[in-house]
Amino acid sequence: MSSHATPVPMTAHRSGPLKGVAQVPGDKSISHRALILGAMAIGETRITGLLEGEDVIDTAKAMRAFGAQVERVGEGEWVVNGVGVGGFSEPADVIDCGNSGTGVRLIMGAMATTGITATFTGDGSLRKRPMKRVTDPLALFGVQSVGRSGGRLPMTIVGAAEPVAVSYEVPVPSAQVKSAVLLAGLNAPGETVVIEREPTRDHSERMLAGFGAQISTEVRADGARVIRLQGRPELKPQVVAVPRDPSSAAFPVCAALLVPGSDILVPGVSRNPTRDGLFLTLIEMGADITFENPREEGGEPVADLRVRYSGALKGIETPEERAASMIDEFPVLSVVAACATGRTIMRGVKELRVKESDRIDAMARGLEACGVTIEEDEDTLIVHGMGEGGVPGGATCATHLDHRIAMSFLVLGLAAQSPVSVDDGAPIATSFPVFEPLMAELGAKITRGGV
Ligand SMILES: O=C(O)C1=C[C@@H](OP(=O)(O)O)[C@@H](O)[C@H](O)C1
Ligand SMILES: C=C(OP(=O)(O)O)C(=O)O
C-alpha cells in the first residue's frame, strides 16, 4: 500500500563532480508486465532484475489476490506460478494499486474478460486519474464498470463472462490503454485488433510474443500501427531478465550533465526505440552521452551509458511525434532546459496533465519559484534557459505525490545557485527506491528535511 501518511521533505545542494557507476533499478513498465503475464501463463515464470518499487509490489500483491502464486526468492528475483489465461479467481477484497496508473489499468484489462468482479482503488493521486480511457474500450468486450464521477477510482469492474473480440483505435497516445485492450483480448475468442496512430512503448507486444501469444504489428502507409492478437492462447511461462529503466536512468544522467566535472557510467539501460526520446533530445542539445557495449538482454536492446558534464547545452524544440517516446522524462528535461542557453519548446505534451500530477503545472510552478521563466498552454511547455549555473534556486517545490516531480527538482538543486527543496520525497519509492543512496554514492548532496 503506497499512500504515505507522513511527507518526507528533502533538499538538494550544489554538489561537486558526480563520479562512478549508477546501477539504476529494473524497468517499471517491463516489471509490471512480467508479473501480470507470469500470472496469466500456466507454470513457473522466473523474473530477475524486477523493480522492487512500491508500484510494482502493489501489482505483485494484486496478482496474488487474483489467485497466482508470487514469491520473492532473492534481490530482484521473483517466481510467479500462473493460473492461465482466463484463470483468475475473484479477489476477496479491494485491489489497491497505490500510486500506479500502469498497475491499475493493465490489471483491469487482464481481469476484464474473465467473468469475475473486482473493485480497484489507489492513493490520493491515482484516485484523481481518468479511467474512462480504459473502461471505454473494455465495454466493447462486454465489460461493465462503475466508479466515481468522471470515471475515477474507486471503481468496480464486472468482467465479461462471454467476451467478444474487439477492434479498437486508441484515441490518445497511451501504452496503458493499448496494453489493457491486448490483455483483455487474451481471453476473448478470435482476433483482437488495436490501432495506434502514434507509436507508444511496445513492451506488451514484445512480452506477449515471448510468452507464446500470436501477435503481429503492421505499420500502415499512414504510419499507424495495427496490432493483431489471437485470443485464448496458452501462455508459456518464461525466464524474464528485466533491463534497467531508462526513465530512472534519466535522473543521474541529467544530474551528471549539469554538475561540473561529472563523469558517470549507467550500465545495462534499455534502449528500446519507443523509450529513447530523452537521450536523443539531450544529444541534440549538445550533451556528451555515448552508448557503449550495445547488446540485447531479455528481448530488449540495451547499452551502457557514459555521461560527462556538458556545460554548453542549447535550448531545443521537441517535436510532437517524439513526445510518447519520452513522456515520463519531460519533468527532468525541463530542468536541463532551465540550465541550458535559449528556449526549449516541448510540444504535444498534454498527456502530462493526467499523470501522477499535472506535470506541466507542477514543473512550471516549481521552476518559476526557482527563478526560471516559463510559458505554457494546454499542450506545450516552454522553458527559458538561464545558462550554466544560472538558475537561482532557493525554493521549496510542491511534488503532489509525484515521484518524477520530486526527483526532477532534486536534480535542479544539485546545479542551482541555492539549495532546492521538495515538500515530499516519499513518492520516489514508487519507481526508484534506491534513488537517495545511489545519488549519494555518485557524490550528490541530497539531505532529508527542508531548507
Ligand atoms: O505502459 C506503461 O508502462 C506506461 C505508459 C505511460 O503511460 P500512458 O499509457 O498513460 O501514456 C507512462 O507514462 C507510464 O509511466 C508507463
Ligand atoms: C506516469 C507514470 O506512471 P504510472 O502512469 O504507472 O503511474 C510514471 O512513472 O511517470
TrEMBL record:
Protein name listed in UniProt: 3-phosphoshikimate 1-carboxyvinyltransferase
Molecular functions (GO terms): 3-phosphoshikimate 1-carboxyvinyltransferase activity
Pathway connected to this protein: Metabolic intermediate biosynthesis; chorismate biosynthesis; chorismate from D-erythrose 4-phosphate and phosphoenolpyruvate: step 6/7
Subcellular compartments: Cytoplasm
Summary of subunit composition and partner proteins: Monomer.
EC class: transferase
Positions with a binding annotation for 3-phosphoshikimate: K28, S29, R33, S174, Q176, D328, K355
Main localisation: cytoplasm
Active-site residues annotated for this sequence: D328
Domain of life: Bacteria
Residues binding phosphoenolpyruvate: K28, G101, R129, Q176, R359, R404
Any Pfam family matching the protein: EPSP_synthase
